[in-house]
Batch of 4 targets.
Target 1
Amino acid sequence: MAVDPRHVLAGILTLTMFLMLGDMIKRDHFDSTHPTVHDTKKASEHTLASVAKGADGPWKEDGLTLKPCWQKPVLKEADESQGYVTFSLTNGPEYHVSQIADAVVVARYLRATLVIPDIRGSQPGDKRNFKDVYDVEKFIASLDGVVKVVRSQPTEISARNLAVVKVPNRVTEGYIAENIETVFRTKGNIRLVTYFPSVNMKKNKEKTSTDSIACLAMFGTLEPQTEVREVVDSMIDRLKTVSRKSNGQFVAVDLRIDILEKKGCHGNGGSGSKSCYGPQEIALFLKKIGFEKDTTVYVTQTKWHSSLDALKDFFPKTYTKESIMPMEKKDKFLNSDTSEFEKVIDYYICSESDVFVPAISGLFYANVAGKRIASGRTQMLVPATIPGSSATSEEFMSHYVTKKNHFAYSCFC
């Protein structure tokens, strides 16, 4: 009995989505949030920011925007093959940046043509065009000379003559040579499905030959399309307006009730660390490290949930997307059949807030951290249960910053 390759691909995409969600919840907890005295001293010495003038609380000024230190590799026309690499973006922008990087690295190694991906949600038939969310012209221009890019899959290529290949996040040349190249040479065209053995973004101990390509793809290709960018900007402006007493500064907290309710978010991990913190725990954490009652807090939960009352009791200026998005934009960006726009909005607000607090460990935290490091917004505070009545915010700075161990530090100088 013949098997329709489209059914096989749909099954792989669905299975991969659940595996990635499981990884995000269960496998990668926060690193220890109680550093040694030496680590705390290093955090204070190496933080680029200084205390913001005229603001109550542990606010820091942004550091300098870092400059890319990778060189854009140029692909010779003679090296280009006739084959195509196709793929889809899934599960939100924190996954998109990694999926883009892997696809570009693979296409570059194979000298293949990269087909601009579509964007797929968690439900069957939930599909958008790349240009609905991202700036397609920016994407093509940024990869000019690196890989050949086409806007759509050629009509002569169908699901039946596409070999589906699973690719681990942060794929290496060795893996491509051993597991992908032969399939590509045989079939001529492949479809990539990225899976995530780990959701951390720590840099490699030694630089690799693909670092410059991965850096460009991860940090230089994706920007929201104009309307999405305008919505993000209007929401940030609103948050700054209601934050007058703190010089327009606000805290963004990645706190989603649906994730918190997952089984993997309850209790402690084997190492004593937690993978998730609830609204009341976040409220106590922010209060104990010195944030004032008047602090403006943005949470990634889309609509108000009764559990957020515990956070609002401590910080009355706590907002969701629903409460600060322009009314005329809500039908398109909040009330659509998919949550894709909501995820993208959260990603960029958390990347551009004055302070970022990841209440949930996982790839969202890791890839938001990368964007923040590149732009000098290094005040990322990893929550913990503080036994005493107070603590300094420096004790809870992200290890990605204090140890400079994020992949972004391989990309920016």
Note: The chain has 16 helices and eleven strands.
Target 2
Amino acid sequence: MERHERGPGEYGAETEKLADIAEMKITEPTLTWLEVSHPQQPIPLGQNDRVIDSRFNEQQDVWEVLLIALPDENEE
């Protein structure tokens, strides 16, 4: 497997997925696993979102993060 090292400011597909999650309108609690190949990059979380668990997947060389996204209290 070939590894592509990204330079500063270069984002991969997982960053786009994380941005999509941050912009989603959450209407009910949502539990999801995210793959994070660059853990030094911040994960955009909502004010009520929480990381439940995380583990390193050696086969894919990524961190897997279990996230619960909760709706904003103001939007109810």
Note: The radius of gyration is 14 Å.
Target 3
Amino acid sequence: MSLVGWTAERELLTELLHAVRAMHSTLIGVNSKSGKPPEVPKPQRPRTLVDDLRKRADRDEAERVIALFNPRPEGAAS
């Protein structure tokens, strides 16, 4: 490339163009969704004692209702 015709004005305009392009590229990278990492999946809520007790109570209630309709003799093996 020849420097004939290269002036201070062209140098300044070239530097301005490079700066604007760099800013444009940075803004696109920062504001685009593809530039963001995927959202980290959140862990499930751990079971609590209350959940366990509620589940046990529901199961006991269901077994009690089933026993009402399906009585077994006292000495029968299960």
Note: The chain is about 60% helix and 0% strand.
Target 4
Amino acid sequence: MRRGFLGAAPPKRAETPPEPRGDPEDGLGFDRAFERALLAQEAGRATEASSSSSDRTLGVTLRSSAANAASLDGALTRHWPHGHVIVPSADGHADNLMLMLHGRGDVPAPFAKLARSMALPRTCCVALQGPHPIPFVDDGRAWFTFMDQESFEPIDGSDPTDTRRVDSLDRVVTRLANLIDALTDPDADADADDAAPTPTWPRSRVHLFGFSDGGTVALTVLTRAHAERKGRLGGCATVCASLLPEQIKSLVSRERDDGSSGDDGSSGAPTPVTLTAGESDRVVSVSSVRETADVLIDANPGHVASIHATPGKGHAMVGGERGEGEMRHLMEFWSLTLW
């Protein structure tokens, strides 16, 4: 049985990850599709479809149709009014949904461009915009409070009585969790006036991909979902991201007080997770990424959160000369977790 990610052994896919070929001018260095992975997956999909159609028919599978795209856009606007960019699946099938969360000070457009370049098979990508504008930064958005609103000094978590940052994070995670619920429940928008039903996906086919603070939000969604005994998501990949120090202290303290792991087995397999880091990152250190993985592992004994650290890389999104190995790692993860 193959392991290497947080949770149960990932579904069996291609044994060899696709070669990262891509356009060298885009600086991303990856294949535009999982050709070899797709070949290995098609037989499995055909068998699954013939044996059980209930999962495939849950909600509406998003195709390249204006009606379904407009319906998804309407659902996103209702449940996430802060802004978004939809990147429909290039192959016309959307068996997977990937929610992409940008970093602090950024906007959805670069993530949407990345989604178009990756062209993940059978995957509709939605780049969400952070809810908070940043003072003195044109268009840049944040996911949660990270500085004092009067002094503009950063909140570093060193004061145990200062809960502003983690409270703000909890609020945005609640909103994102509600969005995921709406996109996985066919009855969530039953009273909406859309011309077409809102496309929905099984939770096991909803994936999160976050950079920096966006990755912190994604990881927090997972820890809360597991604590609340919600069903697992399809996967979570983060780049240069970790849980906040306040969160790590709280989780470690909770496990110590409980005298055992928080997982009693009743919540099922947790979501597969992979974290990538830059060994020269001075914003989110590789040690904090490893500490986050350790906390996740402690909460789920017997499983592993995989980590890929890139030598010489600082705090940056995937790409550039040092990004080929990192992108290969992410592509391998998605080849194992995308349906």
Note: The first helix runs from residue 35 to 51.
